[in-house]
Design brief:
4 strands, two-stranded antiparallel ribbon, disordered N terminus, 19 helices, mainly alpha, disordered C terminus
């Protein structure tokens, strides 16, 4: 018996726009939005609670708990870090100044929401929807930044984008677009993570277009650590992938012409080229401030190095060593921030999480190479930028990071097969041919061929990055033989 499954053209077009998991696509698309734009709602509220509800809804709808009970090393390290954060908050309640519930929620929510997205991203059938959502996300981030550049600071101030909570100036006072975050630094780093994931997981033409779009607006954030994060990540990818080395050589001539042109013509009181030269300027104020903050934070932590200072304000705890510099409220370094808040125990757990993710993604795998490289690039960019910026408290950035980590993990296939009277059949799905199941298990690489058989027999769609999802969602026609 042959079962043919054909979707109407309108349905196929709609699926092409929203993916096979529409709620997940929508959620991923709006992950970078830390607030509802004031242009839509005056004094737009923050979005983490809304996004967390959407993440939990996706976890329930797409069964993030039902595929594989065994936890990965990344999940174990994350759970350990979350448990220590909770213990530190309880210690704060009973032995120190008292528990701040908003602080506890802000610290735990990214870890919990990130774990849900991580498990969803390891499901092969959902990755096409996640990729689509990330692509929409990149376009939206660039659109918001473009509007802020066109509108200018006076217009944004009139709309209520005031300091605090927004921070949009360099150390010397120049305006910088803050995009969908509360600061241009956090926005630039988040944009770099999304840009790398989109470029590495899309087809060549789409990837090239998104690289030009995202790269241009990344330059306009004037976030030096994000620029370097992308450069370092690109170097790691080139070392890790012969395919991307060939593509890099093909695009080198184009990049040689494009990048200098953008550097010279991009607007701004502080040009991109001048901004780059400050990286090695020891007298540049932003550089000297960071060095002083790092030294003062280390001296402060030495007094309470094991469990850290918990929720005690940074300015208060570091007043003796930093003085007025403590008003920056963080040490401009994620590792020092975790060490300050949660001591050596927290830093070991945080480092173990990054090490576990890197170890799982560094190993070469013939299948799902595209996704592995995307996860690896996101890890390298975050680890690098963490040396110079504090993004630990950003809900939107951390849950996006866990999503990208999940993309880099070996996929968990939902489609388990059983032999029955209807032949080889996917649980809860449609009959699959042996070839379809074999291709699904192996995972075709982007750019692979599409296998078709004439007549009523099956064609197995192995289009880039959707090879498993195509089978699972019924976009193939298959033949199964009765026993």
């Amino acid at each position: 018996m042959t079962l043919s499954i054909h979707a109407r053209p309108g349905v196929r077009r709609l699926r092409g726009l929203v993916g096979e998991a529409p709620l997940l696509t929508l959620t991923v698309a709006f992950l970078p939005f830390a607030f509802i734009p004031h242009e839509l709602i005056p004094s737009g509220p923050q979005t983490p609670k809304l996004l967390l509800c959407l993440i939990f809804a996706c976890g329930w709808l797409y069964r993030s708990r039902s595929h594989q009970a065994r936890l990965t090393s990344v999940e174990w390290w994350t759970l350990g870090l979350a448990a220590w954060v909770a213990c530190r908050m309880i210690w704060l309640e009973y032995f120190e100044a008292g528990l701040s519930l908003p602080l506890a929620q802000a610290e735990l929510a990214p870890l919990v929401g990130g774990l849900v997205l991580f498990r969803l991203a390891t499901q092969h059938r959902l990755r096409a929807s996640i990729r689509l959502g990330l692509t929409y996300s990149l376009v939206l981030m660039c659109a918001v930044e473009a509007w802020q550049l066109v509108a200018g600071l006076p217009e944004l101030l009139a709309l209520g984008y005031t300091t605090p909570p927004f921070s949009y100036n360099t150390a010397t006072g120049e305006y910088r677009p803050f995009g969908t975050a509360y600061s241009p630094v956090t926005f630039g780093i988040l944009l770099s993570l999304v840009l790398l994931a989109v470029v590495l997981t899309n087809r060549r033409r789409t990837a090239a277009a998104m690289a030009c779009l995202g790269g241009t607006f990344l330059l306009l954030t004037y976030t030096r650590s994000a620029w370097l994060g992308v450069i370092v990540s690109a170097g790691v990818i080139l070392l890790n992938s012969p395919l991307w080395r060939r593509r890099f050589l093909h695009g080198l001539v184009f990049a040689t012409l494009l990048v200098p042109t953008l550097v010279l013509i991009l607007p701004g009181d502080l040009g991109v080229l001048e901004r780059l030269t400050t990286l090695t300027d020891r007298n540049y104020s932003s550089n000297t401030i960071r060095i002083d903050l790092w030294a003062g934070t280390l001296r402060t932590v030495s007094d309470n190095w094991l469990i850290g200072y918990g929720g005690e304000p940074f300015s208060q705890a570091t007043a003796r060593h930093l003085g007025a510099l403590g008003d920056f409220a963080h040490p401009h370094n994620n590792y020092l921030q975790v060490l300050f808040q949660y001591g050596l125990i927290g830093l070991v757990l945080f480092g173990g999480l990054l090490w576990a993710a890197g170890g799982a993604m560094w190993r070469r795998r013939a299948t799902d190479e595209t996704w592995r490289l995307a996860g690896l690039a996101g890890l390298v960019a975050f680890a690098w930028t963490s040396l110079f910026e504090t993004t630990w408290g950003s809900f939107n950035l951390l849950v996006t990071l866990f999503l990208i980590f999940g993309l880099g993990m070996p996929p968990r296939h939902q489609e388990r097969t059983t032999a029955g009277s209807g032949g080889l059949r996917a649980l809860g799905g449609h009959p699959l041919s042996a070839a379809a199941i074999r291709n699904h298990a192996q995972g075709a690489m982007p750019g692979s061929t599409r296998t078709r058989r004439s007549g009523t027999s099956t064609g197995v769609d192995t289009t880039p990055s959707d090879h498993g999802a195509a089978s699972a969602c019924g976009r193939t026609t298959s033949r199964s033989r009765h026993a």
